Amino acid sequence: MRCSLTKVLVGSLLLLTVYLLGRSDLLLTQPGESASELTWPLAKSEGASASWVDGGNYLPLNVSYRLLAGVPAIKQRFLTIGLASVKRKKGSYLLPTLASLFSQSSSKERASMVVVVLLAEFDPVWRGVTLDEIRAAHPSELDKGQLLVIHVPPQFYPPLTALKRNYNDAPERVSFRSKQNVDYSFLMHYSSSQATYYLQLEDDVISAQSFLSTIHKSILERQAVHWALLEFSSLGYIGKLYKAADLPLLARFLFLFYQEMPCDWLLTHFRELLVQKEQILIKPSLFQHIGAFSSFKGNANPLKDMSFEKDVYSNPVADVYSDISVYKDHVPRLAWEAGEGYFWGRTPELGSYLTVVLRAPAVVTSVRVVTGFEGKDVLLFAVVELGQNVETTVRGEKSCKDFRPLGIMNNGMFEKKALEMEFGSSTSCLRLRVTGKHKDWIAIMKIRVTVKTDLHTSLVNGS
Asked: Is 217 a residue whose pLDDT tops 70?
């Protein structure tokens, strides 16, 4: 990262400037007579009472939006996903990005989110072609209000040329990153009333399976923690989650300082202004960069997030026990928790176990177990079981009184889906029980479970 300004001084100056300029009412420029051009009087999100913008006195942002496709929802949803897309010299990744977002989400998850795409390109031919492609690929999502496509005409943009050359950037790069800041500002401003939370992505990513459920779980786990920004990717401006109540201020912050520095630098300052000093980066990452070439001059851009896990699952909260001797800090719970950790134990005996005890019983719909690395330390002989009726063992651990087998490990792997068809009642335990002699240590890399939940009701109720 290039040399940055002194954080405390810059943060104080930015906050003072926003406050001094933020004493007038929100005004939206009235649109022309075109039927496709809409002005959105954005209502404050639920829960905005804790936000800086609660009083409604913030810097005016004069902008009209053209709704190109989609039907805005009447009720606020759980999550808005924002993308800004422009014409690239080498290919386009927008359609694969949209396809991944929807295909990696269940029908209930899709009903709890809305994807807002800002076509931020001024070339009308490109916009027309791209819009036709989106309509052809996602007619259902557009009709259901799960996908909205918008555009802001160029007359609402501030000057984008002859700008200050901070950091000695080339003029064309300054123009590019400055416009990007304005694009994000307009996108966030529009999105602030669509849902309770807002996720910023770029237009060249793929998503992990059930990413929305993982985000929901991460929010629940941090209810007692003050946060302004949760990060679900370590790359650029990908996978950044905000509370929608903070978006009006963030949109104006980006607009006000659009030519000063790149967006990810500004957003670090904004996070600190909202009194979150430390980064909260959640692993494994839920989004992976797939663009081989950047939108700026088509330069090669092979960045990859090494902690991305496409098949990540949002395991329910649980306690994990095992009688297998642990090697160093590779404790049993690491096999259950999201992240790069794993359980590494010394050679197990016949009857050794690893037991997961759910803190709330649930109907398990799928189980996946992965053991060993590079063909070594594989759990070869074990049965996978589901249990009910929690009890305390003689070792002082929690376990279940009654277990039913799901199946056996196959070359260190186990996977079974649609379990609710066979085991329809709630489960409290998942157990791996060793059934044969092993010569080597074992490494349980991942235990991934999905459970049946009324996700839509849960998200709508804000739980």
From this structure: yes
Q: Give the CATH class of 7-289.
A: alpha beta
Token reading at 28: 């939206």
Rounded CA gap, 147 and 142, in Å? 5
Amino acid at 11: G
Q: What span, in angstroms and rounded, lies between the C-alpha atoms of 195 and 245?
A: 9
Block residue for tokens 């068809």: 421
**Which residue reads 């196959």 in tokens?**
410
Query: What is the predicted pLDDT for the residue at 441?
Result: 97
**Could you give the CA distance from residue 87 to residue 126 in angstroms, rounded to a whole number?**
7
- For 310-371, the DSSP string reads TT---PPPEEEEE-SPBPTT--GGGGTSSSS--EEESPPPTT-EEEEEEEEEEEEEEEEEEE
Q: Is 439 exposed, middle or buried (0-12, 13-18, 19+ CB in 10 A)?
A: exposed
What's the sign of the alpha-carbon dihedral 51, 54, 58, 61? positive
- Domain residue spans of the chain: 7-289, 318-457
Q: Which fold has domain 318-457?
A: Jelly Rolls (2.60.120)
C-alpha gyration radius of the chain: 25
Could you please report the per-residue DSSP string of 414-436? EEE--GGGT--S-EEEEEEEE-S
- Asked if residue 385 lies in contact with residue 406, where contact means CB atoms within 8 angstroms, the answer is yes
Token digits of residue 258: 């659009």
134 vs 137: CA distance, rounded Å: 5
Q: If 0-12 CB within 10 Å is exposed, 13-18 middle and 19+ buried, where does residue 278 land?
A: exposed
- The one-character DSSP state at 308 is B
Q: Which residues pair with 407 in a beta bridge?
A: 384
Q: 284: cis peptide before it, omega within 30°?
A: yes
Distance in angstroms (rounded) separating the CA atoms of residues 222 and 55? 26
Strand partners, 59: none
pLDDT of residue 452: 81
Q: Quick check: helix, strand or coil at residue 375?
A: coil
Pairing of strands 113-119, 287-289: unpaired
Predicted confidence (pLDDT) per residue in 3-59, tens digit:
444 454 455 555 545 544 443 333 333 333 333 434 433 433 434 344 444 444 455
pLDDT of residue 313: 58
Q: What is the mean pLDDT of residues 423-431?
A: 93
pTM reported for the whole predicted model? 0.65
Q: Are 83 and 118 in contact (CB under 8 A)?
A: yes
Calpha distance 295→141 (Å, rounded): 26
